[in-house]
Amino acid sequence: MTSILAPAHLLAYSTLLGTELYQSFVMTKVAYQALPRSAFTTLQKQVFPIYFQSQSLLLLFVVATTPPHGPITLVQSKADWISMAVAGLTAGLNLMIYGPRTKDLMVERVHQVSRDMKLQLEIGSVSEEMQKLNRSFSRAHAMSIHLNLITIGATMFYGWRLATKLRFEVE
């Protein structure tokens, strides 16, 4: 069992960290710069729920495969289980609360643009409803971004600790 856990753990951890870094710092930036706002919004509302689900599942898999004895080994090191708990909590908040809230507000803002167009507001003006939606969206989005950064930080901290435990044999 130990011989399976270590490689599975390293693959799960590296997939988790790679996914977090690539989605957060590469794909989001490229899509934002390359796509019109409506296409970017459509893409993000499809991608981020999958990202938050994958992130949470990978965190669970990392915990489950901690060598040599799975989660029992993880709880024996305070720094390790705390970093994974922080990552799990922040990823869970994005999965269950802030990701869906941000997505819903993003969609609602699109609908509000249509309603505002019917009101034929002056060019450059924004309805009171849109101002409220923008503030709510900004708060939810900022919270989601910060939670994601905390998750990445906790994941990297765990990875640093994991790397210090690696032992290589020369054959």
Order of helices and strands: HHHHH
In one word, what is the shape?
elongated
Number of strands: 0
Query: What share of the residues does DSSP label as strand, in percent?
Result: under 5%
Structural class call reads mainly alpha
What profile does the largest beta sheet have? none
Name the poorly predicted regions. none
Mean pLDDT: 93
Q: How many whole angstroms does the radius of gyration measure?
A: 20 Å
Domain module count: 1
Number of helices: 5
The helix fraction, in percent, is over 70%
Q: What separation lies between the terminal Cα atoms?
A: 23 Å
Give a brief outline of the structure.
With 171 residues, the protein is mainly alpha-helical. It is built from five helices and no strands. The protein has helices at residues 2-34, 37-64, 71-75, 78-119, 128-165.
List the helices and strands and how they pair.
Blueprint: H1 2-34, H2 37-64, H3 71-75, H4 78-119, H5 128-165
